[in-house]
Fold this sequence. Notes:
This protein is mainly α. It has eleven helices and four strands; from the N terminus they run H-H-H-H-H-E-E-E-E-H-H-H-H-H-H.
Amino acid sequence: MSVNQKAVPGAATPGNGQTGNEQSSHLLPRMDYNTRHRPRQEQNMGRSPSLAFNLFARCHEAVSAEEAARRYGIDTERGMAHCVYHDDRHPSMAFRNGRFNCWACGAHGDSIDLTAKLFHLTPIDAVRKLNDDFDLGLPLDRSPSDEELAHEALRRLEADHRRQAEAMRVSLIRNLNAAYRVGHFALISGRPWTGQEALAVKWMSALEYWSNLLDGPDKTAQKDILDHMEELSKLCIKILK
Ligand SMILES: [Zn+2]
């Protein structure tokens, strides 16, 4: 399938009244890309909320903003392109982690936002277009099958689990750093230490080591540490109480 099969109405052609010049770009409604109006019934497709099939999440996971950009005729080079939200002389639109972000005008979003912008569509119609153009097979005009719903439920569970793990990681880093600082300031205070301070000094290098690992790229090491979350939290609480 040709990447540039579809024309880009108004997107990559500054001066057609859609992108405007730099002055008019200030007048662009920010809600264009910052707010999505996605009626709940559209997301749920008539199913009960607990079984909701999130078409938007499925769609933007399936198609990255960069893939949509290329499919719809925007030239991208090394993850950058001319922004379609303002009159962009040098490529300011960066694609990363499936999304786009313009360093110049602040426009940001996913493949759905970009498609809606390019073709002047509502979000649900942008999903419809992406579904057609990328053969996603999303249950748009039918109820999701039991298999699709089961898959969706599993995906949500996994997403919840990831969110919880991330919240734990961030909170543990904060506590480890706070406990480390107790030790650090005790060391330079030049006065006798309290019980908590003595404990913090004793564990300082370990606190720093765990914090650095949790903040680093090694996911396996992070999981090992998070498996001991309870013990480490207890130690932090003893130092910080
Ligand atoms: Zn821009």
